[in-house]
Design a protein that fits this description.
alpha+beta, Peroxidase, domain 1, 4-stranded mixed beta sheet
Amino acid sequence: MAGARAAIRYAKALLSLASDQNAADTVNEDMKLIADTVVDNKELSDALQSPVIPSSDKKAVLLEVFKKSNKTTLSLIDTLMANNRIDILGHVASKYNQLFDESKGIQIATVTTAVALSADLKKKVLAKAKALTGKNVEVENIIDESILGGFILRIGDVQYNASVANQLNKLKQEFTLN
């Protein structure tokens, strides 16, 4: 991914600045909003990547869309504009969220299921993930009907696949090998 290292550097600098200003939590909320908005809005993402759209127009759009953001967040937009790196804004925002969670000792557990998790099941997954990692864990549920049933649990770089689709693929491989 182009700009990944730069995004990490900007995110670290922003976290340091926000922490010094006691605004890390507020900036984290802003960064979540920015990351989600850039991912969910293809037009905005394309506009940020476009070399044809003038920087002044990009800045005007961003300041209008994120006008209720913290001044530290707005200064990030200004800095990225000044350095011609506004195209990595979404990446900086998601890296900031990761760094912020790490600094708070929070780990994200992603649970992919065919249907939405019930509140009771979410509590059980949360308790199990906390027991496995020894850290504070937040559960993020992704719905993917293609797994048919079961679940896929991912914590950091560890993945446990207990999906029906995975079990069917294993059976298929067994039968084709024999």
